[in-house]
Amino acid sequence: MYKVFFKDRIVFLTNNIERDLNSNFGAIFKYSNKKELKDFINHFESKDEIKSAFIYHHDLNELMELFSECFKVIHAAGGVVKNKKGEILFIHRLGVWDLPKGKAEKGESIEETAIREVEEECSITPLKIVKPLSPTYHTYWLKSKLILKKTFWYEMSFEGDMLPKPQLEEDIQVAEWRSTEKLDSIYQNTYPSILEVLNEVIQ
Questions:
Q1: 133 and 154 in contact (C-beta within 8 Å)?
Q2: What is the pLDDT of residue 75?
Q3: CB contact at 8 A, 12 and 26
Q4: Which of 43, 93, 170, 197 has the CA that lies 20 to 30 A from 30?
Q5: For 126-139, how does the pLDDT look when each residue is reduced to its tens digit (9 = 90+)?
Q6: Nearest Cα to 127, choosing from 154, 104, 98?
Q7: Phi, psi of 34 (to 5 degrees)
């Protein structure tokens, strides 16, 4: 199953509707053709009262490809960085807590993107990738186009003593380490997709 966030609402892409409906609830659409899929996406996007929806197709990977073709797709990458104390690096941007991340640049690998973005947004180096995490998907409007952003995530480690500094020109006001026991204020003021990433890392 894939989850795609439309702000605080969610679309589930599934090939097993009975299983996934057991723990979730929402409008249901069975894929038949690309035009109807596009129409359903537009309908869901325009109806804030519909909080969640399921799109079903027997081939999950094909469904994600078809779904993605309905958007302009942008790739990004970021990191969940842990220091020697096990604290996690967060940024505060535009009034919301977030993890450092950004768009991929031409010619770089997605791992290079993730490391570069953390270094640029928080001014710490060197970083080491520990393992890949599950990607997240969310949508937003840009110049009258609905964008689907796929963000690749990596757990990273930082063994140095540098203090993080926010990249002010990117509207980042704060870059700081947080203990996993002191995340309540972050959980209450972050994006749903970021919660997905944190829940994967923090057991």
A1: yes
A2: 97
A3: yes
A4: 197
A5: 999 999 999 999 99
A6: 154
A7: -70, -35
Distance from C-alpha of 10 to C-alpha of 45, rounded to nearest angstrom = 10
Contacts within 8 Å (CB) and 24+ apart, 137-143: 137/2, 137/3, 137/4, 137/5, 137/193, 138/4, 138/5, 138/6, 138/7, 138/191, 138/192, 138/193, 139/4, 139/5, 139/6, 139/45, 139/71, 142/72
Please say whether the beta carbons of 15 and 40 come within 8 A: no
Q: Output the 3-class SS for 132-163.
A: EEEEEEEEEEECCEEEEEEEEEEEEECCCCCC
Q: Where are the domains of the chain?
A: 2-68, 78-201
Cα 39 to Cα 1: distance, rounded to the nearest angstrom: 21
CA atoms in the 13 A half-sphere facing the CB of 99: 29
Which residues are bridge partners to 150 per DSSP? 75, 137
pLDDT in tens, 140-173: 999 889 999 999 999 999 999 999 999 999 999 9
**Which residue's entry shows tokens 């679309």?**
11
Is residue 40 over pLDDT 90?
yes
pTM of the predicted protein model: 0.92
In whole angstroms, give the CA distance from residue 159 to residue 167: 21
φ/ψ of 42, rounded to 5, equals -65, -40
Across-strand partners of 82?
A: 88, 157
First and final CA of the chain: distance in angstroms? 21
